[in-house]
Amino acid sequence: MTAPSTFxxxxxxxxxxxxxxxxxxxxxxxxxxxxxxxxxxxLLSSDPDLAHARxxxxxxxxxxxxxxxxxRAGPRGSAADLATVVSGIGSLTVGAAKLMDYGQVKHTMxxxxxxxxxxxxxxxxxxxxxxxxxxxxxxxxxxxxALFVGRxxxxxxxxxxxxxxxxxxxKTLENESTGxxx
Length: 182
What we know:
Number of helices: 5
Structural class: alpha+beta
Strand order of the largest sheet: 2-1-5-4-3
Order of helices and strands: HEEHHEEEHH
Distance between the termini: 19 Å
Radius of gyration: 16 Å
Number of strands: 5
Largest sheet: 5 strands, antiparallel
């Protein structure tokens, strides 16, 4: 695995990168992860094109899914697409909870034939989204997501969100100027 470049980042940003890397490495069947701000912007991702964590295990699971079904492993294979889906599901469930007057949404799980999507609230509207393979254990994924949320929630300040967003924007601009994919 190639560790994300955290040179020049604050200790909080480095810790959040480490937590995301640890989530992807420790939980079998996770294909991709995205942390999304309350306004739907991608803050942190396991997308390898953004120099974030992706393990051989998750690559193998993604490859097995593609061979078995002929489908790509993630939503179009991009962190931005996963962030869009996570943000949309988050908004939909918040609206449903308000309509039903049942309080705040804690988490959402969507089980599909060939995989799963998990969305969990982090803090002040920020969301953690995980795309898992069909073989992943939903309870293990949910447990590790809750650990991530518990550890990340108190450090995800407006300043840190801004720093993470700028880091992703700079990486995107860097890739575009060199002709690299996303």
